[in-house]
Amino acid sequence: MPRIALVCGLVCSLAPVGFVYADDEEAVDEEVVKEAEEVEADAIAESDEPPVTEDEVKVATFHEYPTRFARRPLVLGMGMVRADSRLTVGGVSGSGTFSSLDLGGAISPVENLELGLSTELTGALPAPGGIGLISVIFSPNASYGDIPVYARYQFHEGEKGFLAGVDLLLVLPSNTDFTLTAGLPMRILELFGLFTVDMNVNLRYRNGDKYAAFVPDPSKNTMDFEFGGAAMINLTDYGFLEIGGGLSVTNIGGAPDAKNVIEIPFFLGGGYTLQRKDLVDLFAQFGWMPLMTANAPPGRDTFNVGDDWFVTIGATVHTKPLFGKNKK
After folding, report:
1. What is the pLDDT of residue 193?
2. Is the torsion defined by CA of 122, 127, 133, 139 positive or negative?
3. From the CB of residue 231, how many other CB atoms can be counted at a distance below 10 Å?
4. pLDDT averaged over the chain?
5. What is the distance between the alpha carbons of residues 125 and 141, in angstroms, rounded to a whole number?
6. Hey, what CATH topology would domain 61-318 get?
7. Does residue 102 surpass a pLDDT of 60?
8. Are the C-beta atoms of 88 and 99 separated by less than 8 Å?
9. Omega before 297 cis (within 30°)?
10. What is the pLDDT of residues 195-248, one digit of tens each?
11. Per-domain residue ranges for the chain?
């Protein structure tokens, strides 16, 4: 019994020591963790670059320019150059088939500004064939096409992905009429994390009558008002699909039987991006320009699907920044 009492007394006297040691060890661990967190916070605060978020990691880029077609701004990155080509086949009013090859290009000399001799503006509705820096019309009558000259300035880029800009486009005629277009392009990047929405509002002056072939006394000066839109989704960083259309009031001020014509275009498209030394987009589009015509001139029906269809296949090549802040 005395031995048992002695053992119990020793255990009781040493127990507090063990608890104190455990408490001291926990306090040291908490202090080490706290110091590590403070060091990490100081390192982030002293860094010039913000911490990379999960969303930023997922966005593929080409020299600071988005690879994903649906993530691209309205203009090229500063110092970039783009070359484009497209082959268009479509219907015509009458016998035969329309076909053309159009080559063009663009450059961004300063930030948020794009200048070009092309119709391949980001987010715009498909342009008719026969317009390009070098444009050759093969059929139904062989000739050279018109030359486009444009400037686009992106003046707004919101935190939630809303982009807005202004366009000025001249078409110098060698086959049709001189036109001057002022536009307001807008883009919402990957709304709800799914698809990008493109919108365009354009006002066009034409030195001629769009429906001159359908009336005996065509007007010499007309106006067009256009609203176009499209939705685009990137299935991967490299593959994309799009669907679009719009509403246009064309030939305002035209001949009595061919003025204030309402046109509703529609198109489908898609493509694939190759990222190598350069950024290459391969694309195809199919649709009707327009699909439906209201208040049409004599000789035109509401639906002229056999005359207004088109198929376009093309490619655009983007160089890395050749000058400016993004050049490496």
Report:
1. 86
2. positive
3. 17
4. 86
5. 25
6. Porin (2.40.160)
7. yes
8. yes
9. no
10. 999 999 999 999 999 999 899 899 999 999 999 999 999 999 999 999 999 999
11. 2-51, 61-318
Per the model's pLDDT, the better-predicted residue between 248 and 28 turns out to be 248
Quick check: bond before 290 cis, omega within 30?
yes
Bridge partners, residue 246, by sequence: 228
Token pair belonging to 228: 């176009």
Measuring CA to CA, which residue among 95, 99, 111, 113 is closest to residue 150?
113
Span 116-120, average pLDDT:
95
Q: How far apart are CA 318 and CA 106, in angstroms?
A: 9
- The three state secondary structure string of the chain is CHHHHHHHHHHHHHHHHHHHHHHHHHHHHHHHHHHHHHHHHHHHHHCCCCCCCHHHHHCCEECCEECCHHHCCCCCCCCCEEEEEEEEEECCCCCCCEEEEEEEEEECCCCCEEEEECCCCCCCCCCCCCECCEEEEEECCCEECEEEEEEEEEEEECCCCEEEEEEEEEEECCCCCCEEEEEEEEEEEEECCCEEEEEEEEEEEECCCCCHHHCCCCCCCEEEEEEEEEEEEECCCCEEEEEEEEEEEEEECCCCCCCCEEEEEEEEEEEEEEECCCEEEEEEEEEEEEEEEECCCCCCCCCCHHHHEEEEEEEEEECCCCCCCCCC
Which single residue is written with the structure tokens 């489908």? Answer: 268
Q: What is the pLDDT of residues 125-152, one digit of tens each?
A: 999 999 999 999 999 999 999 999 999 9
Sequence-ordered list of residues with C-beta below 8 angstroms from that of 307, at least 6 positions apart, any chain: 91, 92, 93
Max Cα distance, the chain (Å): 131
- Give the model's pLDDT for residue 196: 97
